[in-house]
Write the structure tokens for this entry.
Amino acid sequence: MSENEISIKVNICDRFYPLRIKTSEEEGVRSAVNKINERAKYYNQNFSIQDKQDALSMVALEFASKQKTTIADSSDFSTINTKLKRLEQLLEI
């Protein structure tokens, strides 16, 4: 373990997972764990899901769907950025 790494244990749906992370990542990891637990609790309470694995699967699906949207949005941004650069080049002529 390097100097800027720490070992932590996180609790996700009543299971503990040991992690080795950079010190600078700890806040983000703990925030992610809280979000996962909150969303799993939401699925348990609102959709009569009894199995924690099913709740975690729903959370994973939700987060993956949002990630795909984020990737699509950044792709659109890249396309717009390329077109703007091309327009700038045309205006400079």
User: Anything to note?
Assistant: The mean pLDDT is 84. The longest strand covers residues 5-12.
